[in-house]
Amino acid sequence: MLKEILANKENYQPGLSIDCVIFGFHDNQLKVLLIKTKYSDKWALPGGFVRVDESIDDGAVNVLKGRTGLQGIFLRQFATFGQAKRNPVEFSDGVLAFYQIPLVEGQWYRNRFVTVGYYALVDFLQAVPQPEGNNEIVEWIDCNAVPELILDHKEIFDKALETLRMELNLVPVGYNLLPEKFTIPELQRLYETILGRKLDRRNFLRKITSIGILTKLDEKKSNVAHKAPNLYSFDKERYEEVLKIGLHQGW
Amino acid sequence: MLKEILANKENYQPGLSIDCVIFGFHDNQLKVLLIKTKYSDKWALPGGFVRVDESIDDGAVNVLKGRTGLQGIFLRQFATFGQAKRNPVEFSDGVLAFYQIPLVEGQWYRNRFVTVGYYALVDFLQAVPQPEGNNEIVEWIDCNAVPELILDHKEIFDKALETLRMELNLVPVGYNLLPEKFTIPELQRLYETILGRKLDRRNFLRKITSIGILTKLDEKKSNVAHKAPNLYSFDKERYEEVLKIGLHQGW
To answer: What ipTM was assigned to the predicted interfaces of this complex?
Structure first.
């Protein structure tokens, strides 16, 4: 892969890469999609390079597809990382050595790369990586047990998680992450899982219902021992509307 | 300037630029710092290139200083722009022709540039551009009367303004933009000016006081015909704290 890119390096944006932080939720677990690198003991975010003739947004979609086989995921740009020595030349040289690429051929890869971060939140049971070609190990790993990552990938992951948590204050989440019919406690656990902390039940109920995105169904959850909780669904039209205008009309 | 950069292009990050959207507030006016380009009838955001040995954040500070003489302004990265043809080669060739640089010497500049956007909000009376060297025309221009801009600079400006308005929901503003002692109506007009719309007086009063960043002074505004309004100042300690934790503790 790197060899092919180096052979066609004039087609790629120099000194620029893409890194994707794909969060996966299911059943009160928040995971992140990581790749086991072949050239080191550490894991990495799925990343890659952008062609000079494609937008960075399209580049991000293609990088994710190329490295993990995942398609149709809506990626949001969240930050660009450009520390002076974010990819030390020792690191690049190690990768080149692993792929048996002579330094002179790998010069393009030895420069400083600025990387644009993209993130997404999906249901990890609906987004099963099917690597095409290079058979990398791609895994959903619990966000509370992220192993050591290459370069500044931990910083990129942390910033993405911070952005995701901040976004909870601005836009609703849950659509496509919960079953069609769900209970308020299930929705609360989704929020708690993303935030990494417990929420007050009454406060949550008050705030979430005030947004007006929930439809109370004339049904209770079955298979529950005592006091069956009510089922809800998202009012899709209103949900889309709130996505656009934001949760806080603010001032 | 461009000539010097091209002569030392190996010291600059290829295909990457910085653009700064510096908003200036004073006396209920919101302005933006623009540069009158020499090579076209259009105006531009102050922008430039990043050295390979500096971080993009430091690069942004240096670009702003180099183009406008402004220093000590806290810049926040807000988005990166990378459409496939965001800087058409016809544009680059026009600039090279203006500076009488042969195409073969200007090859570096003819490629697609991805640009990282930074923004800031300052008091435009406190931030007077003192161009060093190349004597560009740098002006504070009303945000409601932005002239035609080069390339995708209008899109970058719009995104920065959208981000600034969104940030009003997340962090307090006003410190360093209002006199030390101010009235609630003055603070409300600051918010209205940034948002570009009127706010309900009672709602604003309720929300702004609930944050707890204001200290009500034992003083009334003088030189006011009737019913003098109370004066307030920011509780700096609490203001800094809220800046850190955010306005909405959210869920």
So the answer is: 0.93
